[in-house]
Amino acid sequence: MFTSSAIGKRKSIGTGSLHDNCKRRKSGASPLKDEIKLILNSMSSIAALYSASSGSSIEECMAMVHSMEGIAKGSPFYCYVCNFLCNRDARTVFVLVKDATVRLKWLVYNYEIWRSKNPGMP
């Protein structure tokens, strides 16, 4: 049925030692390990970029709010801004808008949207 040369060419299963099997697995794991390192490095880079662009803590944003004209401390608008800037995305946009006038208009715009959805609020 099979020639002796064909039998010799077939892969044998289970004839290698456990040590040989581990060697084969390690050679396949090395590229995977490198890929995982590459993914982790990429994620770290993305996280660093995000934190650099959104390095906007509540404290930093509130310091900017306190320095802005047109926001009376203790007013309903001021209280809204305090709550609004608890949202990380809102803080990011707040900091990225460089013009103080545009920043104030953006806050007022969001306040008006909130008021239209909450008619009983001041």
Provide a descriptive summary of the structure in words:
It is a single chain. The chain is an all-alpha fold. The protein has two domains: 16-53; 58-117. Helices cover 72% and strands 0% of the residues. It contains six helices and no strands. The chain has helices at residues 4-9, 18-53, 58-67, 76-84, 88-96, 100-117. The N and C termini lie far apart (93 Å).
Q: Helix and strand layout, with pairings?
A:
Elements: H1 4-9, H2 18-53, H3 58-67, H4 76-84, H5 88-96, H6 100-117
Distance between the termini: 93 Å
- pLDDT < 50 runs, ≥5 residues: none
Total domain modules:
2
Largest sheet: none
Count the strands? 0
Strand and helix order:
HHHHHH
Strand content: under 5%
Mean pLDDT figure = 80
Report helical residue fraction. Answer: over 70%
* Overall shape: elongated
- Count of runs of 4 or more consecutive helical residues: 6
From the alpha carbons, calculate the radius of gyration and give it in angstroms.
31 Å
The secondary structure category is mainly alpha
